[in-house]
Amino acid sequence: MLDPTTPLQGVGDRLASPPLPVEIKGLVYETGGKRVIDEINATIESRRITAIMGPNGAGKSILLRLMHGLIAPTKGEILWAGRHADRPMAYRQAMVFHRPVLLRRSVAANVSHALGLRGIGRDKRAICVDDALRLAGLERQASMPARVLSGGEQQRLCLARALSLDPDVLFLDEPTSSLDPASTLAIERLLLDAQRRGIKVILVTHDVGQARRLAHDVMFLHHGRVIEHQDSQDFFDNPRSEGARAFLSGGLVL
Amino acid sequence: MKFHRRVLFGLGAAFLLASLASTGFAAEDDFIIVQSTTSTQNSGLFDYILPKFTEKTGIDVRVVAVGTGQALKNGRNGDGDVVLVHSKPDEEKFVAEGWGVKRHDVMYNDFVIVGPASDPAGIAGLKDADRALAKIAEAEAPFASRGDDSGTHKAERDLWGQAGVDPTKGSGDWYLETGSGMGATLNTAVGKHAYTLADRGTWLSFANKDDFEVLVEGDPKLFNQYGVILVNPEKHPRVKAEKGQAFVGWLTSGEGQKAIASYKIDGQQLFFPNARPGT
Amino acid sequence: MTDFIDAFRTALGLIVTLDPDLVEILVLSIKVSLSAVVIASLLGFAIGGALAVYRFPGRGAVSAVLSALMGLPPVVAGLVVYLLLSNVGPLGVLQLLYTPTAMIIAQVVLVTPIIGALTRQACQDLLEEYDEQLRSLGASSSAIVATLLWDGRYRLITAVLAGFGRAIAEVGAVMIVGGNIDHVTRTMTTAIALETSKGNIALALALGIVLLTIALAVNASLIWVQRLANRLAYA
């Protein structure tokens, strides 16, 4: 089942295509007596880049974590190509967090450790680490302690680590919100490259410009509900909902 | 990097194994454990006589020095082969209850009442120990008691009884119960300018005397008899009866008795052998 | 005051001449305490790491007990081990009472809660940062424990040093289960207690000074090993 066009060394049973569509059915998540995700029903078909947008507190990060299986929904379900997520499914996903989480180890060891957790043998790990660091332009920093890297480098390393796992689906939670333009651009290049290789990218972002540059479809959340979900061209040119219009024009979304 | 980590790990493991091997599991069996009192240890008697016994028999003697009460308790648990203590009624009870085989007199010394040179209760030179204690109680002058159920503590309580005084009424006030060994109690007494009852051996070898002196001595009531008992192997099969008996025999033999008599500090004999031959 | 001056002079004399009796009890002290700390570290890392990561009923209670045991009086630890190892105790058949092994066991009892509780705290702090990332990477609970222990290594070294400090300095436990037998179970601390009770205050203080010096040296060398290991790991 290995895809011969994959430029990275394959990691396990890489499928030719991501396990799509993602079907979200009646999804509810409550915490501390508050309903943060309120009956979301959605289907993500696109094999390209999906942006999740919305004002603060709309439930974007929670939705991402629910999809990735980090938290369990109060009600409802998420189906990947008609299947519930299980461990093999989880192994076909990776996630980059808002704030880079790096181990207190070298740059290379951070990638290697992640590969080790997925059961990749030592010899193969070394090759994957080299590839991943080269892709992210971090090969010269390989032996440096990861936590002394700059913010942009740290996030690039997190992305390189996620990509080294050769996922079918990649989640990102505002990966560039605290980065300078050059670092943001580097991340975006890596994402476009990943998408071209067939990886499904689901990205939470506040940055309208970034969504325009990257996304093929946009899911707009407000108060824990999906207000609208359509192709990005249509979304940006002709938003249907009041909330989205206000959001895109930089107004207050109430 | 991997190599170095392995070297460090290997060193650690090797050290652990080496230290465990060299400490715990040495299969040496040629020793006996003697449960004894702090007075015999602190006086230095054991350091003097035990090498003579070991030289003759090849048996190493390991002394655990605690109070008489605890020594007998440990003996009762079988955690020792021989007990050497100084509280005759308790020793006889120990044997009567079957924990010990037979009690032998070994030696005696005497207790002395020591105190600061200023002698606030004015007991210096009294020939009557209980009279001296009565005066201390009357003056409510500080008195440090072992308070640990040791042989010395038992002897001290007997003296208070004969003086007709219950010192525990002044407990914490002028009557200070240290709950410690002889040496520690002497340190407390010196620090608090308190009188105390000590065995002469420990007193003579005690190095922190300050201005303290022997104030009362020579009363027959201050007689301090030591006895030795082999722990009963019928109660505790792991007791090394043969080697323990060898030690008991040696202590009460002419040779052991001579060794005890020849232990001196500053020319003063500390213990007086009085084993009865043939017992 | 003269005691202090005497003490320093005596301490210096003991060290310079490598007094054989001193060397013997010093070596025993270090052997016993280091062995105890190595064993307690293995136990403490496992217990602390597991308490930080695994969720099970009574976990909070276990953590609380572990923390409370950090303050376990050495005499109590000594008594418990004495009762276990005594000839009338359940482990009497092993014949370990009044041996260095008994002292190691007692110190393991004393030190494991310290290393365990500090390890748990270190791992828990790291877990707050790492939890989602590690679960996203698909780490099993045991892999999370291993990751936290390695990444918390600096704090674990501090925990180990705290444990060593406790072990090398305590007298209550080794006195009871070791018996302070000359040439067999006499350690620095029991020797200090003995000399104090003999009224040899200056000698006791001198031994104390030597003990402190050794503790300092062990601390320094462990920190040095840690730095070295760290440098090599990133070389």
Automatic annotation (TrEMBL), chain A:
Organism: Methyloceanibacter marginalis
Gene Ontology molecular function, alphabetical: ATP binding; ATP hydrolysis activity; phosphate transmembrane transporter activity
Top-level taxon of the source organism: Bacteria
Residues forming coiled coils: none
GO biological process assignments: phosphate ion transmembrane transport
Entries under PANTHER family matching the protein: ABC TRANSPORTER I FAMILY MEMBER 17
Protein's name in the database: ABC transporter domain-containing protein
Family, similarity comment: Belongs to the ABC transporter superfamily.
Keywords in alphabetical order: ATP-binding, Nucleotide-binding, Phosphate transport, Transport
Cellular component GO terms held in the UniProt record: membrane
Ranges for domain ABC transporter: 22-248
UniProtKB/TrEMBL annotation, chain C:
Transmembrane intervals: 32-54, 61-85, 97-118, 156-181, 201-225
Start and end residues of each ABC transmembrane type-1 domain: 26-222
Domain of life: Bacteria
Organism: Methyloceanibacter marginalis
Protein name: ABC transporter permease
Keywords: Membrane, Transmembrane, Transmembrane helix, Transport
Location of this chain's protein in the cell: Cell membrane
GO biological processes: transmembrane transport
